[in-house]
Hints:
By secondary structure, the protein is an alpha/beta fold. The chain is built from five helices and four strands. It has helices at 14-20, 25-46, 65-88, 104-117, 133-146, and strands at residues 6-10, 50-57, 91-96, 123-131. It has a four-stranded parallel beta sheet, with helices on both faces. β3, α4 and β4 (123-131) form a beta-alpha-beta unit. α1 (14-20) packs across α2 (25-46) and α2 packs parallel to α3 (65-88).
Amino acid sequence: MNIPQHIGIILDGNRRWARQRGLTTFQGHQKGFNNVRKIALHAFDKGVKILTVYAFSTENWNRSKIEVNYLMKLFKRLVNKEADELKKKNIKLKILGNVSRFDKELQEGIKQAELKTKNGKKGLLNICLNYGGHEEIAEAVKQVIKDKIPLEEINKELL
Protein backbone atom coordinates (compact mmCIF):
# COMPACT_ATOMS: atom_id res chain seq x y z
CA MET A 1 0.00 0.00 0.00
CA ASN A 2 1.28 3.46 -0.92
CA ILE A 3 1.18 5.71 2.17
CA PRO A 4 1.42 9.46 1.48
CA GLN A 5 4.15 11.28 3.37
CA HIS A 6 2.12 14.49 3.78
CA ILE A 7 -1.63 14.98 3.94
CA GLY A 8 -3.38 18.35 4.06
CA ILE A 9 -6.91 18.83 5.37
CA ILE A 10 -8.93 22.01 4.98
CA LEU A 11 -11.63 22.09 7.63
CA ASP A 12 -14.84 23.15 5.99
CA GLY A 13 -18.49 22.30 6.45
CA ASN A 14 -18.79 21.69 10.21
CA ARG A 15 -21.58 24.26 10.50
CA ARG A 16 -23.34 22.97 7.39
CA TRP A 17 -23.05 19.36 8.66
CA ALA A 18 -24.56 20.37 12.01
CA ARG A 19 -27.45 22.33 10.47
CA GLN A 20 -28.35 19.41 8.21
CA ARG A 21 -28.73 17.26 11.32
CA GLY A 22 -30.60 19.81 13.43
CA LEU A 23 -27.56 20.35 15.66
CA THR A 24 -25.92 23.55 16.83
CA THR A 25 -22.91 25.08 15.15
CA PHE A 26 -20.92 24.28 18.28
CA GLN A 27 -21.82 20.61 18.00
CA GLY A 28 -20.58 20.69 14.41
CA HIS A 29 -17.27 22.21 15.44
CA GLN A 30 -16.90 19.70 18.27
CA LYS A 31 -17.57 16.81 15.88
CA GLY A 32 -15.03 18.21 13.43
CA PHE A 33 -12.46 18.53 16.22
CA ASN A 34 -13.06 14.92 17.28
CA ASN A 35 -12.82 13.70 13.69
CA VAL A 36 -9.52 15.49 13.10
CA ARG A 37 -8.17 13.90 16.28
CA LYS A 38 -9.16 10.41 15.07
CA ILE A 39 -7.85 11.02 11.56
CA ALA A 40 -4.53 12.37 12.83
CA LEU A 41 -3.86 9.46 15.17
CA HIS A 42 -4.88 6.93 12.51
CA ALA A 43 -2.78 8.61 9.80
CA PHE A 44 0.35 8.59 11.95
CA ASP A 45 -0.26 4.97 12.96
CA LYS A 46 -0.40 4.09 9.25
CA GLY A 47 2.92 5.80 8.52
CA VAL A 48 1.98 9.31 7.38
CA LYS A 49 4.84 11.60 8.40
CA ILE A 50 3.18 15.04 8.17
CA LEU A 51 -0.45 16.07 8.58
CA THR A 52 -1.33 19.72 7.99
CA VAL A 53 -4.76 20.90 9.13
CA TYR A 54 -6.05 24.28 7.99
CA ALA A 55 -8.28 25.08 10.95
CA PHE A 56 -8.86 28.83 11.24
CA SER A 57 -8.21 31.38 8.49
CA THR A 58 -8.07 35.13 8.93
CA GLU A 59 -11.55 35.27 7.37
CA ASN A 60 -12.92 33.23 10.28
CA TRP A 61 -12.62 36.30 12.53
CA ASN A 62 -15.72 37.58 10.69
CA ARG A 63 -17.91 34.94 12.34
CA SER A 64 -19.99 35.79 15.40
CA LYS A 65 -18.06 36.56 18.56
CA ILE A 66 -19.67 33.62 20.35
CA GLU A 67 -18.60 31.21 17.58
CA VAL A 68 -15.04 32.57 17.49
CA ASN A 69 -14.85 32.25 21.29
CA TYR A 70 -15.98 28.63 21.06
CA LEU A 71 -13.33 27.88 18.44
CA MET A 72 -10.70 29.49 20.67
CA LYS A 73 -11.78 27.14 23.48
CA LEU A 74 -11.25 24.18 21.15
CA PHE A 75 -7.79 25.46 20.23
CA LYS A 76 -6.97 25.89 23.93
CA ARG A 77 -8.07 22.30 24.51
CA LEU A 78 -5.77 21.21 21.70
CA VAL A 79 -2.70 22.90 23.11
CA ASN A 80 -3.45 22.30 26.82
CA LYS A 81 -4.81 18.75 26.81
CA GLU A 82 -4.32 17.05 23.46
CA ALA A 83 -0.62 17.94 23.46
CA ASP A 84 -0.10 15.38 26.24
CA GLU A 85 -1.59 12.67 24.02
CA LEU A 86 0.56 13.80 21.10
CA LYS A 87 3.66 13.63 23.27
CA LYS A 88 2.75 10.07 24.36
CA LYS A 89 2.28 9.11 20.71
CA ASN A 90 5.66 10.70 19.79
CA ILE A 91 4.03 13.30 17.52
CA LYS A 92 5.39 16.83 17.21
CA LEU A 93 2.86 19.70 17.16
CA LYS A 94 3.54 22.88 15.24
CA ILE A 95 1.12 25.81 15.06
CA LEU A 96 1.49 27.80 11.84
CA GLY A 97 0.09 31.26 11.19
CA ASN A 98 0.01 34.61 12.94
CA VAL A 99 -0.80 33.80 16.56
CA SER A 100 -0.30 37.36 17.82
CA ARG A 101 -4.03 38.09 17.59
CA PHE A 102 -4.89 35.30 20.04
CA ASP A 103 -5.20 36.01 23.75
CA LYS A 104 -2.12 35.57 25.94
CA GLU A 105 -3.43 32.30 27.42
CA LEU A 106 -3.69 30.67 24.00
CA GLN A 107 -0.34 32.08 22.89
CA GLU A 108 1.32 30.64 25.99
CA GLY A 109 -0.48 27.33 25.51
CA ILE A 110 0.84 27.15 21.94
CA LYS A 111 4.42 27.73 23.13
CA GLN A 112 4.11 25.10 25.85
CA ALA A 113 2.50 22.52 23.55
CA GLU A 114 5.20 22.98 20.94
CA LEU A 115 7.90 22.66 23.60
CA LYS A 116 6.24 19.60 25.12
CA THR A 117 6.07 17.81 21.76
CA LYS A 118 9.28 19.12 20.16
CA ASN A 119 11.02 15.74 20.26
CA GLY A 120 8.23 13.86 18.48
CA LYS A 121 9.72 11.64 15.76
CA LYS A 122 6.74 9.58 14.63
CA GLY A 123 5.07 12.46 12.82
CA LEU A 124 4.48 16.18 12.56
CA LEU A 125 1.03 17.67 13.09
CA ASN A 126 0.81 21.18 11.65
CA ILE A 127 -2.25 23.18 12.68
CA CYS A 128 -2.75 26.36 10.68
CA LEU A 129 -4.39 29.11 12.73
CA ASN A 130 -5.02 32.69 11.65
CA TYR A 131 -3.54 32.10 8.22
CA GLY A 132 -4.47 33.74 4.95
CA GLY A 133 -3.00 34.78 1.66
CA HIS A 134 -4.18 38.39 1.86
CA GLU A 135 -2.65 38.81 5.30
CA GLU A 136 0.66 37.32 4.14
CA ILE A 137 0.82 39.64 1.13
CA ALA A 138 0.11 42.69 3.30
CA GLU A 139 2.82 41.66 5.78
CA ALA A 140 5.34 41.12 2.95
CA VAL A 141 4.60 44.58 1.50
CA LYS A 142 5.02 46.16 4.96
CA GLN A 143 8.40 44.45 5.31
CA VAL A 144 9.51 45.67 1.88
CA ILE A 145 8.58 49.24 2.83
CA LYS A 146 10.22 48.93 6.25
CA ASP A 147 13.44 47.60 4.68
CA LYS A 148 13.34 50.33 1.99
CA ILE A 149 13.95 47.76 -0.75
CA PRO A 150 14.45 49.44 -4.14
CA LEU A 151 11.63 48.97 -6.63
CA GLU A 152 13.82 47.07 -9.12
CA GLU A 153 14.65 44.44 -6.46
CA ILE A 154 11.01 43.63 -5.65
CA ASN A 155 9.83 40.38 -7.27
CA LYS A 156 7.66 37.39 -6.46
CA GLU A 157 10.58 35.50 -4.92
CA LEU A 158 11.23 38.36 -2.49
CA LEU A 159 7.56 38.56 -1.52
